[in-house]
Amino acid sequence: MSEALVATQVLAGKVAAVARAVSIVENGRTGFEELLSALHPHLGKARRIGITGPPGAGKSTLTERLTQAYRAAGMRVAVVAVDPTSPFTGGALLGDRIRMESVALDPGVFIRSMATRGSLGGLAISTREVCDVLDAAGFDRILVETVGVGQSELDVTRMADSSVLALVPESGDGIQALKSGVMEAADLFVINKSDRPGAPRLQREVELALDLRMGASHRNVPAHHGALRSGKSTPPPVDDASWRPPVLLTVASQNEGVAELVAALDAHWEWLSASGELETRRRDRLAQRTREVVDRATRRWVWQESHAEEAITARLDTIGAGDLSPYELATEIVASLREGVRV
Amino acid sequence: MSEALVATQVLAGKVAAVARAVSIVENGRTGFEELLSALHPHLGKARRIGITGPPGAGKSTLTERLTQAYRAAGMRVAVVAVDPTSPFTGGALLGDRIRMESVALDPGVFIRSMATRGSLGGLAISTREVCDVLDAAGFDRILVETVGVGQSELDVTRMADSSVLALVPESGDGIQALKSGVMEAADLFVINKSDRPGAPRLQREVELALDLRMGASHRNVPAHHGALRSGKSTPPPVDDASWRPPVLLTVASQNEGVAELVAALDAHWEWLSASGELETRRRDRLAQRTREVVDRATRRWVWQESHAEEAITARLDTIGAGDLSPYELATEIVASLREGVRV
Lengths: 343, 343
Fold this sequence. Notes:
Two copies of one chain form a homodimer.
Chain A: H1 3-11, H2 15-26, H3 32-39, E1 47-52, H4 59-72, E2 77-83, H5 91-99, H6 101-104, E3 109-115, H7 120-136, E4 141-146, H8 151-159, E5 162-167, H9 174-178, H10 181-184, E6 188-191, H11 199-214, H12 224-230, E7 247-249, H13 258-275, H14 277-305, H15 308-320, H16 326-338
Parallel strand pairs in A: 1-4, 1-5, 2-3, 2-4, 5-6, 6-7
């Protein structure tokens, strides 16, 4: 099947073609860039939602509950679970997948786990490209869940329209965590497992940290906890100029607070659209994507089509003897690349 | 101070110059590659030891105990703590540093923590370059401890002469973990906190997994636990053809098993030297370093000195309108780079 045919069938939403296209893209198989290129004009309909947070925050359960909620509203939902976790804790992912059972057999739901393959950088870009396939295939919501820790969270927020940061009461010290880029990139905070002690305290801490960051003028009425208990939805305030991330309380395992999270995500989407931020984000994403593709293509050229690797092999003894440094050789190699020495 | 002068002072082992050179290299400041180039002929004296493992394995305590042991033998020791951890668990590092107190003020010990800065890839290469500075400065042992999880462990093993994988009885399931590249890259296994239940079982599991991997002919007499209890050192068997990683039991907080670990590291070094593996590893490392430097220099050229970024900015509207894909533009940009279009 040619890339063009796969693309046509993806655009028609054919499940088998979607699965196939995702595999082609995930594994960087021949023609994957042509396929993505063919899908490019058809992107932008899906809302991409990133769900991130520390291990044990219940991200998979949250993702499952969101999936159920969107399905109940008649939408098609894709879930991409990114797992750059340590091999030491590799068991966790399997557990998560098992917990997604309630939606795994629903034909309106597409679930894909992506494991670390080579570098995190490579994983981040191929995750974004897999999301493109799912967007082109007509899924209304694409939920990207990162099971990992660290850099991966930042990478997810960079690809999402809305980033949800899930915490648990035991996460503690919201203010300290806020120093990191991850919390700054969050559009919504969820304190999951909020029936455990410490949830209101963590909520206050996060709100306080947001006060410090945003200035007190954007202070929310801290009513989310009460709203959860009374079952009412309190959408966060919308302001064209800036978005104050709401701090929601959920007990995903009991489906508590999930409707409020859906409402908050809708409110964020409205703000994104009204403020022009959606367009800005998507433009930034396109620029970033182009840079990544240039980097990848450049590496392919340098290592598979130029003489760089040969030059290293030929000079390795000299480097080992200390008569040439890796830096000097690299300078030579890059100079010859720049001069357009043909291969 | 010029790079040449800094290099001269580093080679003379001047502490202030070492700290300065480490900062220059860590932050990629002007002249850092010239500095590393000047140090390159003087590398190779230090033994580089990586200490990795899951959070809570007591890596910092092990590192501290090893440092004390090497100091007692009159050696100079450098410790590089790499922390690509999640911002969510960012508190851990501080705790670790406090536990290193017993050696922090010793002038024969140099300690540096390195935090994630940009991508993990960038952290990995700058960690290796910092180790070069410390090697050139005449430290006898360089201990690189990764606090993180995931890819970082693999990166550390790639830079070390000897890789220690620290586990704890609760790590459980050695066989499952062995599937990962991390365990395969380990030269020595340490089951720390081995006074807790489950240590002998984990030791048996890891030994069994090593049997499966290496063939039963390399089976060790599983005497390390007994040796620990009786205070005797049992160096692992040395075989010119292959190295069977020993599985040692330690209680680093009580300094139990540390002498045995030092002996096992010496035995590994002897095997590395006698088998030719040391030379192979160091050659591979030099080739890998050169590739990384080429990649870094290529990116610098593409993004800071070519027209690539301009081209993206100029065409972003067209991409956003769906009339051009990021892949098509990237292909154009790389083609112009390859043709040696001058800037």
